[in-house]
Design a protein that fits this description.
With about 230 residues, the protein is mostly beta strands. Helix content is about 10%, strand content about 60%.
């Protein structure tokens, strides 16, 4: 279950009109109604769950296109375990993904029900249209401060060392795609305890994420997520 939730968060990190798709974001099809399904496998290649993404709404304002993404995550038995929403903003040179997408909405709702004070801050995830092998990408993070019963708790999630490693063709049940491979290190700090989970993302023009692998700190494969359906 923990691996599925972590994979969902990472997937969320990487994952308008037709005009906006062509001229705004090269990699994310920001057209209302577009949907994706990803299949999640554990380290042994066994089914661990599925995640469904849909472009729920698209709006244009002040030269920017904002798409609201809706995500539903199911376990390997098909039982729903997470629903979440986040925004992708397209400026014409690339996209920015809401830093709050790093923190599942169920986590925030849990603290809300406990009537505690939660403050979020961070840096959006940026993905430019002009990707190239060897390119370094900007880091991103989210900081959650929780105040309750006179105590302060801080959770930090950092997306570090992002770079474009290579370009290759990848085949999944959804088809064959020419992809850029993006490496990053996803670091979580909870109550002073730090853990790092490296990952690789395969990204294709006009579709978005095709595949994602997450690893333990020592490099052992932890989970794999790949595109199984794409409808536009």
């Amino acid at each position: 279950m923990k691996n599925v939730l972590l994979t969902c968060v990472i997937c969320i990190l990487f994952v308008a009109t037709n005009f906006a798709q062509i001229n705004c974001s090269k990699y994310y099809p920001l057209e209302e109604g577009t949907s994706f399904q990803y299949t999640i496998y554990d380290k042994k290649g066994k089914l661990d769950g599925t995640s469904d993404y849909k472009v729920a709404t698209v709006s244009n304002s002040s030269g920017e296109t904002v798409a609201e993404m809706h995500v539903t995550l199911q376990d390997k038995k098909g039982k729903e375990i997470i629903q979440s929403n986040y925004n992708i903003t397209c400026t014409g040179t690339g996209v920015k993904i809401d830093f709050q997408s790093l923190m599942p909405s169920q986590t925030l709702e849990q603290y809300k029900e406990m009537e505690v004070e939660v403050d979020l801050s961070g840096t959006d995830i940026e993905l430019p249209n002009d990707l190239a092998v060897g390119q370094e990408l900007a880091e991103a993070n989210v900081i959650m401060n929780i105040k309750m019963a006179g105590m302060n708790m801080k959770t930090i999630v950092n997306m570090l060392n992002r770079k474009v490693e290579k370009k290759e063709t990848l085949t999944t049940p959804a088809g064959s795609f020419e992809c850029y491979v993006i490496y990053s290190e996803n670091e979580s700090q909870i109550m002073g305890m730090k853990k790092t989970f490296p990952s690789r993302l395969w990204l294709a023009a006009g579709v978005g994420m095709i595949k994602q692998e997450s690893y333990q700190k020592d490099g052992d494969l932890m989970s794999t997520t790949e595109l199984s359906k794409f409808n536009q």
